[in-house]
Amino acid sequence: ARGITVHLTDHDPAQARTAAAIGAGTDEAPEGQVDLAIVAVPPAHVAATLAEAIGRGVARAYVDVASVKGGPRRELAALGVDVTSYIGTHPMAGKERSGPLAATADLFEGRPWVLTPTRDTDHEVLNLALELVALCKAVPVVMDADAHDRAVALVSHTPQLVSSMVAARLEEADETAVRLCGQGIRDVTRIAASDPRMWVEILSANPGPVADVLAGIASDLEATVDALRGLQSADVEKRRGGAAGIEDVLKRGNAGRVRVPGKHGTAPVAYETIAVLISDEPGELARIFADAGRAGVNIEDVRIEHATGQQAGLVQLMVDPRAAAALTAELRERGWALRQQ
Ligand SMILES: NC(=O)c1ccc[n+]([C@@H]2O[C@H](COP(=O)([O-])OP(=O)(O)OC[C@H]3O[C@@H](n4cnc5c(N)ncnc54)[C@H](O)[C@@H]3O)[C@@H](O)[C@H]2O)c1
Ligand SMILES: O=C(O)C(=O)C[C@]1(C(=O)O)C=C[C@@H](O)C=C1
User: What range(s) does the ACT domain occupy (predicted)?
Assistant: First the structure.
C-alpha cells in the first residue's frame, strides 16, 4: 500500500505463498540486493537466520522483530557476525493467533515499535529501520536490548502466563459454570488462546526477568489468600484485616491500570461508551459503523458482548465524549435500541 516491493520467503513455502496471496507481497526471489531484510522467525532461529542472510549479503540493512532482544544479540556476537548493518527491533503489536491469515494491514498503526541500536550500528541502517516504522505508522521507541527484555517481561510476557493460568482453571470446570462466562473473563483470557510453541520460545529467551515479575505476583497471591481466609474468620479483627488486604490489592490495581497508555501510546483517554443492542445477524455491525460515519463520529474502540443462549448482543462503542451526543441522536433516529451503561 506504500509502494514498496516486498519479497517473502519462509522455510515453509506454503506460508510465503499464502501471505503473497492475501496481498503481503510476492514470493518470488528478488533480483540482487534489497534495501532492508526483515527477519520474522521464532526467537531461537533469529541469530542463525540473520547470520546466514548477512553472510550472503542479501540486503543493505537487516532488522528482526522478535519479542526478545538480548539473547539474539548475544548469539550473533558469539557467531562472530558483523552487526553494523543490523538493528534488533520489536513492534509492540500482535495477535493471539499466528500465521499469515492472522495478519492485518493496520496492525502496527499507532503502536510502539522498539529499536535497539548500539554504538556499532551504521546511521544509514538506523534511518532505514526508522523509515520502516514510519511506513507502518508505528511510533519508534529507542531502548537498550536488556532494558527492553525487562520491560516486556512486565507488560507482555508475565500477562501472557497469568492469562493462561486463569484460563487453565476452566479446563476441568463444570459446564454450568462455564456457561456464565461474561465480558470480564473474556478480557482476561483473550491471549490465553496464543500459540504455546511461540510462547515457549519467547519465555525460554527471557526466563529471569519473567520469573522476577511472577514472584512479585506470587507474593500478592499469597497475601490475598490470607486476606480471604481472614474474611472467613469468626474473629471481627481478622475479618477487618482481610477486607483491608483485599482493598489494598484492588486499589493498587486501579493505580496500575490508569498508567496503561491509550490506543495511540499517548496518555489514556476517557472515552464515553454508547451501548447498542444488536441482533446476531450478518451486517448489523457494518450498519452501525455506517450510521456512526454518517454522524461524522470516529469510533475509537469497540467491544461486543454476546448474550448467552440469545440471538442478540450488546455492542459498546467507545467515542470521544464530545461526539457522544451526536452519535446517540443519530443512532436513535435510525431506530437502534440504546442501553444505559
Ligand atoms: N505474534 C505476535 O503477537 C508477535 C508480535 C511481535 C513480535 N513477534 C515476533 O515475531 C516473530 C514471528 O512471530 P509470528 O507470530 O509472526 O509467528 P508465525 O508462526 O506466524 O511466523 C513465523 C514464521 O517463521 C517461519 N520459520 C521458522 N523458522 C524459520 C527459519 N529458520 N527460516 C525461515 N523461516 C522460518 C515459520 O515457518 C513461520 O511461517 C517471533 O520472533 C515473535 O516473537 C510476534
Ligand atoms: O495482543 C496480543 O494478542 C499480542 O500477542 C501482542 C503482544 C503483547 O503482549 O502486547 C504479544 C507479544 C509480542 O511480542 C508483542 C505484542
Answer: 273-341
Of the candidates 90, 95, 99, the residue with the CA atom closest to the CA atom of residue 71: 90
Q: Is residue 72 within 8 Å of 88, Cβ to Cβ?
A: yes
pLDDT, residue 15, reads 95
Write out residues in the chain with pLDDT < 50, as ranges: none
Cβ(191) – ligand 2 distance below 6 Å: yes
Residue 170 is classified by DSSP as: T
Query: What are residue 59's DSSP bridge partners?
Result: 34
Separation of alpha carbons 339 and 341, rounded Å: 6
* pLDDT, tens only, 120-157: 999 999 999 999 999 999 999 999 999 999 999 999 99
Cα 198 to averaged position of ligand 1 atoms, centre (Å): 8
φ and ψ at 17, to 5 degrees? -65, -45
Which residue in 276, 282, 289, 287 sits closest to 336, CA to CA?
276
Contact 315, 285 (CB under 8 A): yes
**Which domains does the chain possess?**
13-143 (3.40.50.720), 150-257 (1.10.3660.10), 272-339 (3.30.70.260)
Single out the residue of 341, 334, 335 nearest to residue 319, CA to CA: 341
For ligand 1, mutation pick of 198, 200, 203, 210 (most atoms within 8 Å of CB): 198
